[in-house]
Amino acid sequence: MRRMGSIPFGYKLILPYVLCLLIAVLTVGLFAYAHSVNSLREKTRENLQGTLRQMRDNIRYRTDDIERISNSLYYNYSLQNALRRYDQGWYSYETMTRTLMPALENLLNYTASNIGLSLYLQNETLPEVFYKDGGQNPLLSTKRYEIYHVQRIQDADWYRMLEFSGNLPGLSRWQQILRDQEDGNISLLQRLDDVQRGKAIGLVRVAVQIKDLLDSVDYRKIGEYSTLVVLDDNGRIVMQSSPEGTIAASSRTEPGELVLSESLHGLGWQLQAYIPYSLFDQSANEVRRMTLLVCLVSAVVLAALGIWVSGYFSRRIQKIVGSLNAFHDGDFHKRIRFKGNDELAQIAIAFNRMGSNMEELIHKNYVADLQKKEAELESLQAQINPHFLYNTLSSINRLAQFGDIDKLHIMVQELAKFYRLSLNRGEILTTVGKEIEHAKAYVAIQCIKYGERLSVYYDIDPEVLEYATVKLILQPLIENALEHAWFGATLGIRLVVAKRDSEIVFKVIDNGVGMNADIIRQIMAPEGPRIGYGIRNVDSRIKLHHGNSYGVIIASRSGIGACIQISIPCRM
Q1: What residues contact 327, with CB distance under 8 A and at least 6 apart?
Q2: Spatial separation of the C-alpha atoms in residues 520 and 292, rounded to whole Å
Q3: DSSP strand E in 13-74: where?
Q4: What is the C-alpha separation between 336 and 353, in angstroms, rounded?
Q5: I need a labelling partner for 160 at 20 to 30 A (CA). Which of 16, 60, 393, 396 fits?
Q6: Which residue intervals define the domain HAMP in the entry (predicted)?
Q7: How open is the CA angle 49-185-57, to the nearest 5 degrees?
């Protein structure tokens, strides 16, 4: 019952309608979300498979480009006629310079990739042309052609294992031979036949860098955190593209991945993509956000009608509650204005009348209390050392009798400064700097009176001089020390003024006779005896002006002196 009673009036009106509305919207939203996510996952899978096919087609385009170079040599009948001749001398030179070498030069310019074109010939009357690389991959720097005799490779295992069908002349295959695996290359091998005679006249080898063939294999085209792997016919990794850039195992069994694959025809390799399901989750999150947005908009639109129905009544109740809370916070100027003459309008009229009466009563009590405090403050200030003027004038009289004009002049000046600062144009507040000047004027008068028996030291923080304080709070403490703290022939007093956090702290420290705990308790008692009346006077004035959190604190023990501390807030 308490919980129901704490629900606002407007919520009680709209809550049943909103609950029914939420059940309907959530049911429709969950169904739409589940259907959309399933459709999106299937569509995303199709898009990724399409991207993989596009990579496959790009690779196929590169391999076809290399195969066209090889086929250009195979179907070059003028080249076949030239290679069919085994004449030496001039005929051999003419075949090399006018037929073979120009044909190879033209084929090198057929593609932009760096390729190595090698021609192995049965005709040994033609000279060999080749380079010495010294173990470096030649395709890293340039494209070039070389001419060898077939006898160089007749005993090589890869050459003997080549299986070219006699029924399919010109059949080619991709294979890594010689130093291809170390250099990261792969070669297209194709038999060079004499088409007219049906006889093999050589072998064409076109070497290309694997990274040039597979430059379209980029995991970023699939999605973040995906991995693309190209496997050869033995299941070994030829290339991998992933955020980590490391070679993974050829068979992966991680549970949170979708595996898609495409065959790279011609090469006999396999292109595989490992896609984390988190990629699908990102798309599902977008659908979830859109579904939530649609549900929220629908709920808001449908709930607006119910809110409008309950709003007419709840707004008036909220105005009354808000005005009551303003009264609780001390704002009695709040008023309610309702049109009409219904029950709520009558409550508003009664409420406004009550607020006016309370404001008037509080104002009267506040003004009376303020006047009382100001009268008490003026009375307390008027009690500060009324006999000080008499004692000082007596000292001036003695100085005049003794003819000590210099001291007489100083005492008159300091007395004038003392009372000028005391009056302060009738203001209760002064600055910390003027209060310190007032205390120094009093000390200067007393130093003339006591001479070398009195020593006063000052430790003033310049930062506090512009802050405001109640006037006449330091002089009574110094006067109290001069009257009660003497312990022997001399007395030392130290005045410290400093800022501490949000407070200003004054300390009057003496090395006199000190006070025990009982005397301190009597001094600070509001209705205590007359002893320490000046200290109690200062404490009362500070508390009247700044509150009970501030005032005077006494720390002393018999025989070790006393420290009287005043704290006031930092105010300008």
Answers
A1: 334, 355, 358
A2: 72
A3: none
A4: 10
A5: 60
A6: 311-363
A7: 25
CA 479 to centroid of chain Cα atoms: 60
Whole-angstrom CA distances from 138 to 69, 173, 281, 460 are: 19, 22, 46, 86
Cβ contacts of 205 within 8 Å, gap of 6 or more: 116, 117, 118, 119, 120, 177, 187, 188, 189
Which of these, 498, 509, 500, 483, lies nearest to 563 by C-alpha position? 509
- Report the alpha-carbon distance of residue 543 to residue 571 in Å, rounded: 15
Residues in the chain: 572
CB burial of residue 217 (10 Å; 0-12, 13-18, 19+): buried
- Alpha carbon 148 to its chain centroid, in Å, reads 67
Sheet of 172-175, strand order: 144-149, 115-121, 199-209, 185-194, 172-175
How much is the pLDDT for 247? Answer: 46
Q: In the block, which residue shows the tokens 């330091």?
A: 474
- Non-local (6+) Cβ contacts of 357 within 8 A are none
pLDDT in tens, 348-399: 777 777 777 777 777 777 566 556 655 655 655 555 556 667 677 777 777 7
Amino acid residing at 201: I
Give the integer Cα–Cα distance in Å for 101 and 107: 10
pLDDT in tens, 133-189: 767 787 777 888 888 888 888 888 888 776 554 444 556 788 888 888 888 888 888
Lookup: tokens for 407: 């001291």
Question: For the chain, how long is the longest CA-to-CA vector?
Answer: 155
Cβ-contact 532, 480 below 8 angstroms: yes
Beta bridge partners of 119: 147, 204
Q: Are 149 and 118 in contact (CB under 8 A)?
A: no
Does residue 491 come out as left (phi exceeding 0), alpha (psi in the -120 to 50 range) or beta? beta
Cα dihedral 435, 437, 440, 446 in deg (nearest 10): -80
Q: Which two tokens stand for residue 534?
A: 């000046």
Round the CA-based radius of gyration of the chain to a whole number and report it. Answer: 53
Token output for 169: 């002349």
CB 83 within 8 A of CB 121: yes
Least confident of 4-8, 300-304, 466-470, 483-487: 4-8
Q: How many CB atoms lie within 10 A of CB 518?
A: 8
